[in-house]
Amino acid sequence: MGIKIERLVLRHIRMPLVHFFETSFGRTYERDIILVEAICGDISGWGEVTAGENPFYNEEWTGSIWPLLIDYVGPRILNHDLASPEDVAPRTAHIRGHRMARGGVEAAIWDLQARLNNEPLWRTIGGGARDQIPCGVSIGIQNSVDELLAKIETELADGYQRIKMKIKPGWDVDVVRQVRTRFPDIKLMVDANSAYTLADTNHLKRLDEFYLMMIEQPLDHDEIIDHATLQAALETPICLDECIRSAHHAEQAIRLNACRIINIKLGRVGGFAEAKRVHDICQANGIPVWCGGMLESGIGRGHNIALTTLPNFVLPGDVSASKRYWARDIIQPPIEVTSEGTIVVSKCPGFGYEIDGDYLENLVVRRETLM
Length: 371
Fold this sequence. Notes:
The chain is built from 13 helices and 17 strands. It has helices at about 60-75, 90, 100-115, 120-125, 145-155, 175-180, 200-205, 225-235, 245-255, 265-270, 270-285, 300-305, 355-365; strands spanning about 5, 5-25, 25-40, 45-50, 80, 130-135, 135-140, 160-165, 190, 215, 240, 260-265, 290, 330, 340-345, 355, 365-370. Helix 1 crosses helix 3 (about 100-115) and helix 9 runs parallel beside helix 11.
């Protein structure tokens, strides 16, 4: 069944985090998020633009999303006959970059298609390989090592299967050593968010002694070739994140042996259609994947759960419980993690949760309806 989008409602919301989140880019205390509601008849689908508040992770930020959706993406989607959500990406492909903005709209239309079909989103995208997804957590840089150790202890007690800790120069080898000494048997990985260069190779080689699952994105966001050089020098698998914006990038990285694992983020690659292509290329080449997080609200988190039901998502991702980030989420019920460190995949239509409309409206900073 085809779709014609009659309206797009954009909402800019502001949500305070329960605890600051620090990476090599800096600290975040609250999230400014752009939500997209795609409407066909009396049915709505919901998507989330996962860009940050600043253009540090990539070139996009909350302030850039708003005019791009209004002036460029919306007019190319509204009132056009779409055979399926797969048609969204080609209609916006000539917009260079800005995959998070385009992907947020595409995600809303996939959710709309699922609700029109009265089926779960994971089924609409071709997932369903598992009915529970394994969960890990991403722990930002803390004020002290003692705070980090305490936070890890809490997350393990909550059942999470894998710990990811952020690193940067000055907060890396010695800190990881203390974590490994305290927790010798846990699944542990580190994420550098492009904080290093090839000149740091010998320093990064010191991480090999800690039998990490992976080191995520140690070098710059566009350095696939340098990552190949670094991977040849390391025993620890490199996982690429920021470098992989398309299936073509995944092909290049695999061909060059630039990584042994790939993190797939819906926004970074521009939505479900491209995420599935990245997934399929990795699966065909024996490269495991997992789903990374961008401090999403429950809407983006629900989309990530659906994505993680595809078969090659064999490593615990960053999809965790709502309460880790929000005192109150914008969905009902909130996303919860079992004592075994899994999330039970919802069988409800769409991304699996209902919008908490009253609370959502309290968070709205600005709104625009495109017709």
